[in-house]
């Protein structure tokens, strides 16, 4: 099967006063149609820049310096600027943490969604409104027809995020990149949206990259997981296996620091220190100063290991649990 | 014999939002009144024992921060009073807090906004005790150094500015600043919410240590159920300004009684249980400006019956150390409440 999205060796750099920093460093992953890939990492690990790079949203002082981005087998970076613009929004769409990045505050929901339809397709306004209503229904918005007449400020935060997701869906894209879309929402609303998005992937075969810092979210609804640290993907595999049996020391540290896995009141196993600044990365493996199994070898660039369906970038991958 | 440190007695807080200039003019002409009232906290009573950590949980807008601010003496309650060790610390006198207490210290969510960017960390920590004359001037440096060590920072950091610290370190400074006042009660309002998981674990561990060393009593406000379970002895669940359930943490997590509590637990994604369905709670959180009649949860409750629409359930005992505000649990058989209704959102 052709992956809906495949990224190979994506590298994005920013020129800063302190020199050139590599915010996304040789990142590779793929998502099959109908699958949800959870891209997880702590703040500053490069999740958003990865999404922006794929969507062509990197501006000065940043630049995508290497890599290939295949959407349905087509290498986007080989296309002309016009062709790329056509694909973005139609074949691949993005949903942001703040839905107001997508929504225009002065337009009715129906008008702006209809405009989004007509950017890529010649249809009547009437038909575009119908499409908008259908998209709102897909994401579980009650009385969708009435909501089309509302302005964004008349909707709750959760509703606005659903509208942003519905807008991304208008052209039945092969891939949706969702950047922490439920982080600012309450758990009950997050639960509703996760359920809708999962159904969407299952029923419409849309591939989804779900960016989050929350491992529990990934664990409960993603098929695969990619763990980022300091701009690199350090571990990939199926969500179930990676969480049950992490092979990268950072992944293990992250999982172990989740309180719900421990006896109440017990001290939590903690990863010492803080994430490094990109301008001051340690030599060799960027996780080395915080890693509890590091040795001399870790002063060199960590190699990638392919361990039966798992990819781990580390000098000393952890043993598989029995 | 229990040793009650904090007593929140029938506290309510309403905010009135005055109409804007235009709306006020229209009001004058039409004789209407478009002032709106937000019922932020409604008739909440709670007691906290010395040395106990009580969790306050609920979704945004349910009144957690407002309650924390009332306890800290920042807001005056509209009704009711707050007693600390028997002394009134928060009671409305002519629309203002009678006297802001230093005996309760609050730690806020945002470690970036809560520290003055132009003050050195040492000054930030010493400011409160200095103003209130709590420590002699010549002992200040020693005290600041000791506090920095207590929260896991180096003494030398006293000379740095807040921007030189990471989020987790700033939250440690905020904790040191609160401890400098030797408070009897700490109110932590989403204190770890903005921190990354690995940093969150570090700050939770610090809290667990401090609790053991200092015998802290605290209100731990959070929307994160797994964090609350980890550090709290008892948990209070709030919904739209009201207390709906109160129980020892272990009992609550084992068997929530209120339909809202159990729906909330069901909607929290859990680590390591594999893929599952969510959609545990239907519909949106209603507005505290016009809370639903009867039980405020009734429009979203799968068990709501006719009585739930009209009568506000009072909070009543439901087993050892537990209480719940729900007709199903408080009305004996609950037969009159258990007829499922079809809500708009569920349809
Ligand atoms: N415009 C920019 N200029 C310089 N550095 C940037 C810029 N945008 C992002 N970065 C850097 O890229 C890194 C990754 O950021 P981001 O992708 O936003 O992280 P995440 O989404 O994982 O929290 C950060 O360390 C940030 O400093
Ligand atoms: N100073 C204020 N003025 C007006 N309304 C307020 C004020 N503070 C809080 N509110 C309202 O009171 C309700 C409860 O808010 P809050 O206590 O902050 O909830 P939580 O902390 O649980 O999210 C909300 O509807 C909020 O908008
Ligand atoms: S390469 Fe070395 S330092 Fe890096 S995670 Fe693996 S063991 Fe730790
Ligand atoms: Mg981001
Ligand atoms: Mg709050």
What is the topological layout?
The complex is a heterodimer of chains A (322) and B (347).
Chain A: E1 5-16, E2 19-31, E3 36-40, H1 47-54, E4 62-71, E5 74-75, H2 81-87, E6 92-95, H3 109-120, H4 125-138, H5 144-147, H6 157-169, E7 175-179, H7 187-204, E8 207-212, H8 215-221, E9 224-229, E10 232-238, H9 239-244, H10 249-256, E11 304-307, E12 310-313
Parallel strand pairs in A: 3-8, 3-9, 6-7, 7-8
Antiparallel strand pairs in A: 1-2, 1-4, 4-5, 9-10, 10-12, 11-12
Chain B: E1 4-17, H1 21-30, E2 36-49, E3 53-57, H2 64-71, E4 79-84, E5 87-90, E6 92-93, E7 96-97, E8 104-107, H3 121-131, H4 140-150, H5 167-179, E9 185-189, H6 197-214, E10 218-222, H7 225-231, E11 234-239, E12 242-248, H8 249-254, H9 259-267, H10 306-310, E13 316-317, E14 323-324, H11 327-330
Parallel strand pairs in B: 3-10, 3-11, 8-9, 9-10
Antiparallel strand pairs in B: 1-2, 1-4, 4-5, 6-7, 11-12, 12-14, 13-14
Helix pairs in contact in B: 3-4, 3-5, 4-5, 5-6
The structure holds adenosine-5'-diphosphate (2 copies), iron/sulfur cluster (SF4) and magnesium ion (2 copies).
One adenosine-5'-diphosphate is lined by residues 14, 16, 21, 23, 41, 43-49, 61-62, 278 of chain A.
